[in-house]
């Protein structure tokens, strides 16, 4: 395997992880907002 391919693969996983964490925090904010509306 080419070393560069391994680096690119790691970068892709890091990018996906950041996007997942960002969406997760946004999703939690939406849930907390909905819970506040119910009260």
UniProtKB/TrEMBL annotation:
Keywords linked to the UniProt accession: Membrane, Transmembrane, Transmembrane helix
Organism domain of life: Bacteria
Residues annotated as transmembrane: 6-22
Protein's name according to its UniProt entry: Uncharacterized protein
Source species of the chain: Salmonella enterica subsp. enterica serovar Adelaide str. A4-669
Taxonomic lineage from the root: Bacteria, Pseudomonadati, Pseudomonadota, Gammaproteobacteria, Enterobacterales
